[in-house]
Amino acid sequence: MNEVWKKPPVTLEAYQAMVGKEIGVSSWHLIDQPRIDTYADVIEDRQFIHVDPERAKKETAFGTTIAHGFLTMSLLSIMSYEVMPVIAGTTMGVNYGFDKLRFISPVRSGKRVRGRFVLAEAKLRKPNELQSRTNVTVEIEGEDKPALVADWLGLIYFA
After folding, report:
1. What stretches of the chain adopt beta strand conformation (E)?
2. Tens of pLDDT along the chain (159 residues)?
3. How big, in percent rounded to 5, are the helix, strand and coil portions of the chain?
């Protein structure tokens, strides 16, 4: 079970009061070669820049393999579970997409990443449906530029 469900829930009003504020920063998550290889197998994208360390070292400016951008993006879920609060009465939450998603810097194999979350918007679309917009920056440990920035949309449903 994700750690998020172990946190005490907040009220809808308290959640909406967080708009404009940084909600939190996740723990670091390692992007190592086994993780990259597993992801490559799942999505059937085995381009050498991801799965062939020797060739990537010789033929790219990265010096090693790099994570798929979508692998980094996929970690947003676990990162958000670590920091985003649960709203009391929530029955489920779903991804609604992105208004903006940019891959800024490659994540080299062996690096760690973490997510920084700012709640940008939380508005009721229906009495039992909240649309949230979260500005997310995925930082790469020891690097100045982030791996990605995103405006992530979610829908949260209530009983």
Report:
1. 22-25, 29-31, 90-103, 111-126, 129-140, 148-158
2. 455 557 799 999 999 999 999 999 999 999 999 999 999 999 999 999 999 999 999 999 999 999 999 999 999 999 999 999 999 999 999 999 999 999 999 999 999 999 999 999 999 999 999 999 999 999 999 999 999 999 999 999 998
3. 30, 40, 30
